[in-house]
Structures are given as structure tokens and as C-alpha cells.
Write a structure and sequence with these properties.
Layout lengths: L12 H4 L1 E3 L3 H11 L5 H10 L1 E5 L4 E3 L7 E7 L2 E6 L5 E7 L4 E2 L12 E4 L3 E7 H7 L3 H15 L1 H5 L8 H12 L13 E3 L4 H7 L4 H8 L2 H4 L2 E4 L2 E4 L9
Antiparallel strand pairs: 1-2, 2-9, 3-8, 4-7, 4-9, 5-6, 5-8, 10-12, 11-12
Helix pairs in contact: 2-3, 8-9
């Protein structure tokens, strides 16, 4: 399946987002939530340098080949690793949800290895590289960051590693099961309704099918009894049915 073409302008991260200085206590709670393996004093030091950055759908937070400028901790919204093919078409690499930290190996890599592209409006904490590296100055901290990020970032990819050996219906169910594990998407006061932050074309790329295929699958009785997507809301009717067969 060919990738979708994205017309978003390649912007430097400082121009693509609105920057604000959040309360350090809020930043600390966020970092402790998403990086629980970090010692408290390290998390508190990171929080002192954190900036809250807002992004819009279509923004590039950074591009492949650019120097790494800092650590991103996604707190709201959906992003993706996006790689461009020779014909200019973009292919989504993996979904990036709240709690994911990029880059995955801050102390090892010198440049970013894919484009970080926003599929929805959202927010992220940004810690500049110099203080982040100074604070994460030992192997244990670096490993905690790297292992936590790899585990979360590629959790969905691991579940559907054998995509060619699973049906598109199974892949669709697995994706929705993974999506609803993120409490940030749950609508307040509801246990079944979630904010849906992607287009059907985005979803189709992640599970390696075409958009018409997704549209057909969503209408099948075995899927309709499990969940439905109406505009920007995902409603789960039977969560247990989303588990692998």
C-alpha cells in the first residue's frame, strides 16, 4: 500500500510549537508518571528545565538528520515517526502516544533518525539536551529512559510483529485494544468513550491496509459489536472482544 502524502511544512521545532514554562510541580508529576524508574532527585532536576510545548496536526517537531536538541515527553495527542520515500510519499512508522519519550537513546545518537510528525493537536514536555544529558549522567538513568521508551514506543509494533500472518480484522482489534490503554484519551466521566485523534487513513497505514479496507471492516458485524468510531469519538462496546483470539 502506498503511503499518504503529507503537505505539512517542514518547520524547526521552535517555530512549529508554542513554548511555555509550566509549573515545575506539574512537570515533576508528569515525569514521575511516565518515567517511574528514574530516581526522584533526577526527575525533579529534569522538571526544573521542562518547557510545555503545544503542537498542531501537521507540525513537525523535528526532522530526520537534524541534530538532537532535547528530550520530548508526549503528554497529549498522537504523533508518529514518518519516513519519506523517494517519490515523496510519507509512510507512518509507529504510533507515538502519551508517555512516549523521544529520542529513545539521548546519550548515544547525535541526530534524529526519523521525522516526528503530529497526527493531532497535543502537548509535550521538552527538556533541552544539555541539562537532560547532565542530569541523566549515569548508565542506570540512561538505561531506565531507553528501556522505558523502547517498551512503550514499540509495544504496539511487538503485538502485531507478524502482520502478514494475521488478518486485517485482528490487526484492527489489536490497535484499538492498544489505543484504549492510554487514559489520556478517555473522555471524562465515561468508561467506554475515548477521544479519537486520527483519521481513518492514519489508522489504515498503521495496520498496513487501505482506507477503503478500513471502512469495510468497520461495518462488519464482528467489529461493530466491539467498537465504533463517530467523528472524533471512539466508543468501545465490548472491550474483552478486542483481545487476541
Amino acid at each position: 500500500m502506498g503511503g499518504s502524502h503529507y503537505s505539512g511544512v517542514m518547520l524547526n521545532a521552535d517555530k512549529a510549537v508554542i513554548t511555555a514554562l509550566p509549573d515545575s510541580a506539574d512537570s515533576l508529576r508528569t515525569i514521575r508518571r511516565y518515567l517511574p524508574a528514574l530516581p526522584l532527585e533526577k526527575a525533579a532536576a529534569l522538571a526544573e528545565h521542562a518547557e510545555l510545548r503545544h503542537f498542531k496536526r501537521g507540525d513537525y517537531l523535528y526532522c530526520a538528520g537534524e541534530p538532537i536538541t532535547g528530550l520530548w515527553v508526549v503528554t497529549q495527542g498522537v504523533l508518529t515517526g514518518l519516513k519519506f520515500q523517494r517519490d515523496g510519499e510519507g509512510r507512518l512508522v509507529t504510533p507515538i502516544f502519551p508517555g512516549h519519550c523521544l529520542p529513545t537513546a539521548l546519550r548515544v545518537a547525535e541526530v534524529n533518525y526519523f521525522n516526528l510528525f503530529a497526527l493531532s493537536d497535543g502537548t509535550a514536555l521538552f527538556i533541552p539536551k544539555a541539562p537532560a544529558m547532565r542530569i541523566l549522567d549515569d548508565v542506570a538513568c540512561a538505561d531506565a529512559l531507553h528501556l522505558n521508551t523502547v517498551k512503550t514506543l514499540f509495544g504496539f509494533t511487538d503485538m502485531v510483529a507478524n502482520m502478514n500472518e494475521t488478518s486485517s480484522l485482528t490487526r484492527l482489534k489489536l490497535f484499538i485494544a492498544h489505543y484504549i490503554t492510554y487514559d489520556e484519551f478517555r473522555l471524562e466521566g465515561s468508561t467506554e468513550r475515548y477521544r479519537w485523534n486520527m483519521t481513518l487513513a492514519d489508522l489504515a497505514q498503521f495496520i498496513r491496509v487501505t482506507r477503503p479496507h478500513i471502512q469495510v471492516n468497520l461495518k462488519k458485524p464482528e467489529i461493530a459489536r466491539l467498537f465504533s468510531i463517530n467523528r472524533r469519538v471512539l466508543t468501545v462496546h465490548y472491550a474483552d472482544g478486542l483481545r487476541p483470539d
